[in-house]
Amino acid sequence: xxxxxxxxxxxxxxxxxxxxxxxxxxxxxxxxxxxxxxxxxxxxxxxxxxxxxxxxxxxxxxxxxxxxxxxxxxxxxxxxxxxxxxxxxxxxxxxxxxxxxxxxxxxxxxxxxxxxxxxxxxxxxxxxxxxxxxxxxxxxxxxxxxxxxxxxxxxxxxxxxxxxxxxxxxxxxxxxxxxxxx
Length: 182
Fold this sequence. Notes:
- By secondary structure, the chain is mainly beta.
- The protein has two domains: 2-121, Roll (Structural Genomics Hypothetical 15.5 Kd Protein In mrcA-pckA Intergenic Region, Chain A); 136-176, no CATH class.
- It is built from one helix and seven strands, in the order E-E-H-E-E-E-E-E.
- It has one helix at 27-38, and strands at 2-8, 16-22, 47-51, 57-62, 86-92, 97-107, 116-121.
- Strand 1 and strand 2 (16-22) form a beta hairpin.
- The longest helix has 12 residues, at 27-38.
- The termini are far apart.
């Protein structure tokens, strides 16, 4: 079976992609196809939710998990059975941002060699929303004089920095971390 899946963004009005993928492909394959079609680099762990016809989430399919089956383990054909079936692809779980997806067509007996983006319209949503820049209140970040080795903390305007507000990179024991210094 060959699925045609249409995805739109609730954030970007004129964005839509139409994907074609086989029923024996995994959710990880669909995840990769979406990222390629949108031009996204790896960002945060993503997830799928299978939804009912009112977009209520029924089944969670994570990228990584110790408890649930993951995208790598689950084939699309085991969950997508009907045209009109809905899913959500969450690409930014911290802000619950994602794409709304629907199986727009199922072709029986038709196959393709590789999953593909058949059609794309508009610009994909940005991975970091442009409308919500990180706001740091003016004057809240203070670098104490004579302390080039210390890194400042975010402080209120009324507080003076103390030695407790700084740390020295030399004091951090990297032995307990899996860090490659190369």
